[in-house]
């Protein structure tokens, strides 16, 4: 599983990977901007690009991506019929994944 996440991270630019690392460390956009000497708007642009390239929908997805790419083994989300999904489908509710 982590190799799939590593492949997603390899698609990112060096600066996007740097932003992802700061997000994984729990930093806010403003803190990332200060550390990288960027504007918060530029950080937001990097985050939007990361989400577009990886399919991540929110900060939690980005954290899962960063940790998994770093080698942490996390359980994959299971969709209907047991299909593995890396990130929740758009508009999906967490209860949708609970077997009946």
Describe it.
The chain is mostly helical and about 100 residues long. It has a single domain, classed as Orthogonal Bundle (Arc Repressor Mutant, subunit A). Helices cover about 55% and strands about 5% of the residues. It has helices at about 1-10, 15-25, 30-35, 40-55, 60-70; strands at about 75-80, 85. The chain has a two-stranded antiparallel sheet. Helix 1 (about 1-10) crosses helix 5 (about 60-70), helix 2 packs across helix 4 and helix 3 (about 30-35) crosses helix 4. The two termini are about 25 Å apart. The model is unreliable at about 90-100 (pLDDT under 50).
Tag the structure with descriptive keywords:
Arc Repressor Mutant, subunit A, mainly alpha, DNA-binding, Sig_transdc_resp-reg_C-effctor, 2 strands, Tscrpt_reg_LuxR_C, Helix-turn-helix transcriptional regulator, globular, about 100 residues, WH-like_DNA-bd_sf
Topology, element by element:
Layout lengths: L1 H9 L3 H11 L4 H8 L3 H15 L4 H11 L7 E2 L5 E2 L15
Antiparallel strand pairs: 1-2
The CATH fourth-level homologous superfamily: Winged helix-like DNA-binding domain superfamily/Winged helix DNA-binding domain
Looking at the structure, what is the overall shape?
globular
Identify the strand order in the major beta sheet. 1-2
Helical content class? 40-55%
Whole-angstrom Rg: 14 Å
At the first level of CATH, the class is Mainly Alpha
For the record, the CATH architecture stands as: Orthogonal Bundle
Q: Structural class, from secondary structure content?
A: mainly alpha
Figure out the total of helices: 5
N-to-C order of helices and strands: HHHHHEE
Number of domains: 1
**Main sheet summary:** 2 strands, antiparallel
Task: Determine the CATH topology.
Answer: Arc Repressor Mutant, subunit A
Mean pLDDT: 76
Distance between the termini: 26 Å
| Fraction of residues in β-strands | under 5%
**What is the subunit organization of this protein?**
single chain
Count the E strands.
2
Unreliable stretches: 88-100
Keywords: DNA-binding, Transcription, Transcription regulation
Protein name: Helix-turn-helix transcriptional regulator
InterPro entries: Sig_transdc_resp-reg_C-effctor (IPR016032), Tscrpt_reg_LuxR_C (IPR000792), WH-like_DNA-bd_sf (IPR036388)
